[in-house]
Amino acid sequence: MRIAPIALLGVALLATPALAQVAPAKNNVAIKDTHTVDDGTSRSGANSFTQAQAREHIAKSGFTNVSALTKDKHGVWRGTARKGGRTLHVGLDFKGNVSTGR
Questions:
Q1: In the chain, where are the structural domains located?
Q2: What angle do CA 76, 80, 86 make, to 5 degrees?
């Protein structure tokens, strides 16, 4: 009769590590893979986009004639682009957020 309690203890000890597993974090992405226009303020931060990558990212967000791109002191790529028949000021922050305005 001592075998049953020992067997139950063994099963309980073997099952414990499975309960301790943690699901991976969701949405832990540094750079957006979707191309959306935020229309808010660009966030300051170390921007690793090259000028060509910034131009491409802004263009994939629906803008054309992306030009005059320069990185400002806050790490935001700024320039001008056309959308909806208008020329707008655009910015691309280190997270990949595209914003319009200044």
A1: 25-100
A2: 135
